[in-house]
TrEMBL record:
Residues 44-199, 192-332 form the FAS1 domain. Keywords: Membrane, Signal, Transmembrane, Transmembrane helix. This is FAS1 domain-containing protein. Residues 1-18 form the signal peptide.
Length: 416
């Protein structure tokens, strides 16, 4: 997107920045020592009017209409009001981008508020501060709550990367397709990029897995209650073997009993923690089966190890509404199980989340699949443990596992 497309945004009055500071509780040189609530509200209104006027002048009329459409709802007012507080990065879909969105979606104010929230980052991001692929920058958006509640009240992230160290643009990486953020303009406290498609909200596990790991999805669906338990977990990391990886070891898996199958399955999951690629730099994670994960990286890529099984991470940071998936090129055949260690890891995560102070801090660390770490423009992120509901293998799930194991031996089911 050419910079000239955004030139009109630069017409946003300089006074809007002072107004936003006043409305947000900050200081402005012309502000009185104490401002009344009505004055702050008036400044906020002036600020939003100026911002929407600048977006209109830049030709982003459908975006403005969408913003106006949510202005009379509680959630919409909260979102629009938050724009004036601190620096923000805004990915602004063009009119053409919105033309591909259904009228039903545009008319659903709750859904539309979530979509717009996912286009706003709670910091300033530029290409110079975004990681170079295959590394990723995990950037927190304003989308949180409802189906998008993550442990510690963290907001849903976007995955960013650029294709070279000197690139002047970067990609917003999503499962369906990537979006380029190129030319930009600064309007008051907003750093605005015009993009050519509306970003897709984070998918649920049952929406994402069929596209990225069909056989794994088939497995989860074959065990009663398992898919639902994973989908409802508040914080989840899954190392998902590709179809080729599952096929390569299918005959060996037929030799496992139901308890061993359950162990292998749980040793592909970190329960209660969302470990994006930026956090796969330590071995301080315990699987849902109570086994330790080890992570390594070198010039050939990033790897995860469980017991004696090692797999390469071939696609990282597939964002879920309740966690993240990393695709791996081999099955982690670890039949070990330690329920006490699994419960201890969960308890530690719960305790840490109860005192977490990072709920509104964007994660901007940029270490990932290979290469060194860095940070995006703005504050740096740190790892955290999260409060979650434990994933338990219920009696009905175990019955399904036993049936699945029997089917493997008979060659009727593909399973890892």
């Amino acid at each position: 997107m050419k910079f000239t497309t955004l030139s009109t945004l630069l017409l946003l009055p300089a006074t809007a920045l002072a107004q936003s500071s006043s409305a947000a509780g900050g200081s402005a040189s012309a502000a009185a020592p104490s401002a009344s609530a009505s004055s702050a509200a008036g400044n906020s209104t002036d600020y939003l009017t100026a911002v929407l006027g600048a977006l209109t002048g830049a030709g982003l009329t459908t975006l403005v209409t969408a913003a106006q459409g949510i202005a009379n709802t509680t959630e919409g007012q909260a979102l629009l009001g938050s724009l004036a507080s601190g620096n923000k990065t805004v990915f602004a879909p063009s009119n053409q981008a919105f033309s591909n969105v259904s009228q039903d979606t545009l008319g659903d104010t709750a859904l539309l508020t979530q979509i717009l929230s996912y286009h706003i980052l709670n910091n300033t991001y530029t290409a110079s501060g975004v990681a170079t692929a295959p590394n990723h920058t995990i950037a927190r958006t304003l989308l949180r709550g409802g189906n998008y509640s993550l442990p510690g009240n963290f907001s849903a992230p976007l995955v960013l990367a650029k294709n070279s160290t000197n690139a002047t643009s970067f990609e917003i990486i999503q499962t369906a397709s990537n979006t380029t953020a190129g030319g930009n303009a600064t309007a008051a406290n907003l750093h605005v990029y015009v993009i050519d498609q509306v970003l897709t909200l984070p998918q649920t596990l049952t929406e994402a897995l069929p596209a990225v790991a069909p056989q794994l999805f088939g497995l989860a669906g074959s065990i009663p209650g398992l898919a639902d338990s994973l989908a409802s977990a508040n914080g989840l990391t899954i190392f998902a073997p590709t179809d080729a990886a599952i096929g390569a070891i299918q005959s060996s898996l037929g030799q496992l009993n139901s308890t061993q199958v359950a162990a292998v399955l749980s040793n592909h999951v970190i329960n209660g923690t969302v470990a994006y690629s930026t956090r796969l730099t330590s071995s301080n994670y315990t699987s849902a089966g109570g086994e330790a994960f080890t992570f390594m990286s070198n010039s050939t890529g990033a790897y995860v190890k469980s017991a004696n099984s090692t797999a390469k991470i071939v696609q990282s940071d597939i964002i879920l509404n309740n966690g993240v998936v990393h695709l791996i090129d081999a099955v982690l055949v670890n039949t070990g199980s330690n329920s006490q260690a699994a419960e201890s890891a969960y308890s530690s995560a719960t305790a840490a989340a109860a005192t977490s102070t990072e709920a509104d801090t964007p994660v901007t660390a940029t270490s990932s699949a290979t290469g060194p770490s860095g940070s995006a423009s703005g504050s740096s992120g740190t790892s955290a443990a999260f409060k979650v509901a434990p994933i338990a293998f219920t009696s009905s799930m175990m019955g399904g596992i036993i049936a699945a194991a029997g089917a493997i031996v008979g060659g009727a089911l593909t399973l890892f």
